[in-house]
Write a structure and sequence with these properties.
The chain is mainly alpha-helical and about 100 residues long. Helices cover about 40% and strands about 0% of the residues.
Length: about 100
């Protein structure tokens, strides 16, 4: 953990909960019980998207304008270059979300 001046104030190792999250997700699918999830899918999506947008804002060094309906970055081509990934030849994603 780092403070605002980027000085390390705490370090450690440990379980980040990935195994438990995956097990919970798979158990909910196997049992066909969406309410067994520790968090709703939309909450997980929103939390992850906020992390990605924060990372993009950090990389560009500025505040982002976000469309509240779809979460997309508005009017910032430099930030948008971080919005998608580069695919290896033959592995191009063919999906359009509107």
């Amino acid at each position: 953990m780092y403070d605002r001046s980027n000085k390390e104030v705490k370090s450690g190792t440990g379980n980040n909960g990935d195994i438990e999250h995956i097990e919970n997700f798979l158990d909910a699918i196997r049992s066909d019980t969406p309410l067994a999830l520790n968090a709703e899918i939309q909450i997980g999506h929103t939390s992850t998207m906020l992390c990605h947008l924060g990372n993009i804002a950090q990389r560009t060094g500025r505040t982002l304008s976000i469309n509240p309906k779809n979460g997309h970055i508005v009017g910032d081509d430099a930030a948008m270059k971080y919005w998608q990934r580069d695919y290896a030849d033959g592995w191009v994603e063919d999906l359009t979300i509107t």
